[in-house]
Every structure is written in structure tokens, then in C-alpha cells.
Amino acid sequence: MHFDGLRVDGLRAVAALFVFGLAVTTGSLGTGSLGLAQDAAVKAAGAGKTAAGKTAAGKAASPIAACQGASSAASAAGFGLMCGKRIPAGIFLGSYVATVVDGIGDCLKRCVDNESCTAFSLAAHDAASGPLCTLYGSAERFIDEPAAVSGVRASGAADSGNDTVRWRHHRHWHGYSHSYSRKGFSLDKKGSKTPSKCCADGDQVALTPDMKALQPVYFATDRVPATGAALEASFTAGRAPTMSYGLTIVSIPKTHTIGNVERPQFSYLKWRYQAETDADHFRIKALTPLDRDALVSELADGDDSVLLFVHGYNVTFADAVFKAAQIAFDANFPGSVLVFSWPSAGALLKYDEDRESAEFAAPDLAKIFHLLSKEIGEKKVYIVAHSMGNQVLVNALQQSALSKADLTINELVMAAPDVDKDVFGSKVEDIRSVAKNITVYASAADKALLASGDKSYGTRLGFVGPSGPSIFPGIEIIDVTAVGDDMLGLDHGTFSSSRAVLDDLGHLIRSVSHLEPDIRTPTLRLMPDKAHLQYWLYPR
């Protein structure tokens, strides 16, 4: 088990980010033009809500209970319904608390009236006013969700029950493209391409029945390279004077569950680690060094978005790569994935050493910001930093601001930031000058940050004290205490309760433009109230 922060129960790097599957498309999003028959069908679906949405006892029924009765009306409006099977994943257009009992007619009408909407989902939640309706600008894959109803515009999918019809594969492959080879590109059915430089000359990494997918992860690191080591130990905890770049291919095991990075566990009974297998564990199947120009070329030729992940304390090079792969796979992230692996010692008792290494790495991360902003063309750039990785991030952003750099950062997520709140406050104006959309996830239940604050003699930005979270103008703070100390759902014990946070993260990086937290996730409470808004809070 790896530890991030000082918690011994396994707070790892940022989890399943973008749980909704999520795959950006660059084509048109559908017309949404409706004839009179469709208008009538929508009204019919809404008119039937009372009969279909009430149980015999007069209580509100779940969307599932009303789904079958709404199928005909939805079909007449040009939508196919799936009752308790799957929900779509695609471009996030918005979420709403449905205003009617079962919500199907209301949710259908919202999608019909939005010409960019090609699909919707409807799921019950804690609010008494109705279920949560989510609209999507694309329906490229479907995720199993037996407690929800979904609808797909007929023009957007030939068969909503066939997951492969609209499933566009980008940087990870579930079946269309079965291997990576350095000899040119291989194409999937939609024409997407694999990285041009993948594996050692003549080698090929094939997708086998033991794997769910092969996920490319580019890397930039200021760790010292290890000569003659296994792929997963390619870089040490030493601090290198120059950066190394490359591409890894990570296999996702067939037993993978969302939010986890499955790795061999230590057996105290046998007093050794489990044997590593493709079926049960994340593995680095190939690693190809790239020079800086080659990395720039790869990213420039890739998709129109880049996810940059900055890991936290006590993380090895392999851990960082695995976590980036897991995030991208679980989110079905459509763009290029790049991990910046700074020289963390990867050891529980070396917190102080890691803190010094985080300071060492900041100038190198600033160079990566410049590369992504100025050298790879016009791309959407999403940055996610976790725990102590935020110390690297904050210092790099300040350095960029002081040098008057013009950065491209579409969204910046600081998850459980292990940064002194007063230090952050002294730098926040510089940071906001180069990064406009900043979201902080903080928790009062985060034991790691509580311990870190005691050790460092200062409250951490990611910790919520008795008086509430640390508030800074222009920074969106979300209190996730209600979902537990493992806010991003890495451990099975808290995954179900933290699903809402993962959904919000997914919405954040998949919206057409930046949306405030309560627009992305309507169940959030505005604290203390809308008129005096300071932060957002997940209700208990």
C-alpha cells in the first residue's frame, strides 16, 4: 500500500476523476429540431408523470418505475430510453433537479429544447424535489448504472442498446485497436491514431483477454534515470539536473474497478508480494524515451485536449504513471495524458525530504506549463494536482506569473492541497493571474492534512477547520467532508459515498465552458447562502 500525506490508511493520488466515462468529440452535436409530433410527444411524456410516477401509497416513485410507461412518448420525440441499464458518457451540458415526480418528461423536454443535447440521464438523489437530470452533448459510450434512466436521441445513436455504436476510442483501446507498434500508426474505426513512437524497435504491445485496455501515458520527470532496471523502476528518487521525457503503455487489468489502481499486495501469510499478472494488476508494458522535440511533436499531433497530472507525497515513478493511467481510463479521457513525476522518495517516513524535492521541482513544472501553452498548438489543458503535488504547482504558477508567462490552463483542480494556507494567500494573486478557473476540494475529515499541518505548524489549504474552509476571492472551494476522509474514493469503503465528488470532477473537465459548482452539481449547498456565497458544501 502506498501512502500520500501522513495517513496510514491509504490516501493516494487523485482518483477516478471524470467517472462519467467522458470522451470529447469534435464534430457537430446534433440539430435538436422538432416537428409537431415531437412536441406533442414531449407534452405527453410530461402529462403522464402523475400516473406513472406515483406508487399505490401516493409516494414518489423512482425514475425506473416510470420508465417503461414513458418509452412510447420518448420514442415519438425521437429518443430511445434505457431503463435501469446504462447511462451515457460524453460532453457535459448541465445538471438540473427535475421539477416533476418521476422527472422523465421534464428531463426529456430539457434535452429536446437544447439543440446541442444528444442524450440525458435521470437518477434519484437525496433532494426531495425530484431526481437529477443530466444533459450530454454526445453519447459516445455507456456506463452500467442499474439505478438510472437514460435517453439517447435517435439521430445520435443507431442503437442505444449497443455500446459499440457510438463508442469512439481515443487514447485507450477496448477492442478496435489491439496493439501498439512503433512502426507507424494504427487506426481505429473512427480514424483515431495511436502514438507514433511507442515501443522498442520491432516490439509490439498487444491487448490480450486479461486486459481491459492499453493506456498511453506520456511523462516528464526530473528524477534520475535508473540504468538496467525493470520498466517500473526506470527512474529513482534522485534529483536530476535535466528532465527526461517519454511514453509508457500501461495495461489495465480485466479485474479493474473504478477508482482503484490494482497492484500486488503483500501477503503476511506467505511473507511476500503477490505475483504480478496482467489480469489483476496495472503494469507498464512498454517505455520509450523521447527527446523534448519528440514529446512536443507527439502532443501537437494528438487530440485537442491534454490532462496534466501532478502526484503527491510518497509516490514512485511507476505509481505516478499508474495513477495517471487509471484517471484517464476511468474517465474515458479523450486527449493526451501527461504526468509530471517529481522526485518523491516514495517512502512513508521521508515527508521532509519530499517537501524539499517539491521545491526543487517547481522550475521544471513551470517549463512544462510553457511547453503546453506555447509549443503544441491550441489545446485545452486540464491540470490536476494532489496533496504535496500542489506545493510544486503553486510555486511553478507563481514563477510563471512573475515571468509574465501567458499560460493556457482551462481548469485547475487542487485536490486535498498540502499547502500552507497563509503561504497560498501570499501567492494567490500571482496564481490567479495565470490560471482563471481554480477549484479546491477540502475536507475536515482529512487526517493526513491534519497531521501535515501539525508537523508544518500551519493549517493546510485542503483542511477544513472549525470555522470552515480557507476562503480566497476567485477560488472555488468545495467542502467534501460529508463524503469522508478519502475524498476521491480510492478505497472501497468510501467509494460509493464519494461518487458525487468524482462526478463533479468529471463535469468540471467536460463542460463546454466553465460552470460554477452548483451548476455542475445541483445538490451542493451554497454556504452560508446564495446572497453571501463563500463556498460550496456536500450535504450529509
Care to describe what's here?
By secondary structure, the chain is of the alpha/beta class. The chain has 13 helices and 22 strands. 27% of the residues lie in helices and 24% in strands. The strands form 5 sheets. Strands 14-11-10-16-15-17-18-19-20-22-21 form an 11-stranded mixed β-sheet, sandwiched between helices. A 5-stranded antiparallel β-sheet has the order 1-7-4-5-3, sandwiched between helices. The protein has a two-stranded antiparallel sheet with strand order 2-6. The longest helix is centred in the C-terminal third of the chain and has 24 residues. The N terminus is likely disordered.
What is the second-level CATH architecture of the largest domain? Answer: 3-Layer(aba) Sandwich
CATH fourth-tier homologous superfamily of the largest domain: Alpha/Beta hydrolase fold, catalytic domain
Task: Quickly give the structural class.
Answer: alpha/beta
Low-confidence stretches: 1-60, 156-194, 489-497
Largest sheet: 11 strands, mixed
Task: Report strand order across the widest sheet.
Answer: 14-11-10-16-15-17-18-19-20-22-21
Instruction: List the domain count as a whole number.
Output: 2
Q: How many H/I helical runs? A: 13
N- to C-terminal distance: 29 Å
Strand-residue proportion = 15-25%
Give the CATH topology of the largest domain. Answer: Rossmann fold
Helix content: 25-40%
Average of the residue pLDDT scores: 78
- Report Rg: 23 Å
Shape: globular
Strand segment count: 22
What is the name of the CATH class of the largest domain?
Answer: Alpha Beta
